[in-house]
Amino acid sequence: MSLQEKRGLVCPSYKKMSVYRQCKVIELPRSSYYFKPKGESLFNLQVMSAIDRKFLDCPFYGVERMTDYLRQDLGYFIGQKRVRRLYKLMNLKTI
């Protein structure tokens, strides 16, 4: 059973069994039940916008070239790992 399915099984309004016990029965850590994922930071959104604009002009730019462009031309302090993660998140593939 996936984590999402287990989270859906827990009902906080159920009075006969606490959230703690419900989580214990279905073997779901309470931290996983209460976890709220954060969205992307403002900086990452700005970088993604810059990547998107440049990628439309140069779809052959890979991660290394895009990182160089962001650093040298736009002045962003950014590493290849972040650019690679954003490429994956944006589902971009070079041609």
Automatic annotation (TrEMBL):
- The residue ranges of the HTH-like domain are 47-94
Q: Which InterPro entries match?
A: HTH-like_dom
What is the protein named?
Transposase
**What organism does this protein naturally occur in?**
Sphingobacterium phlebotomi
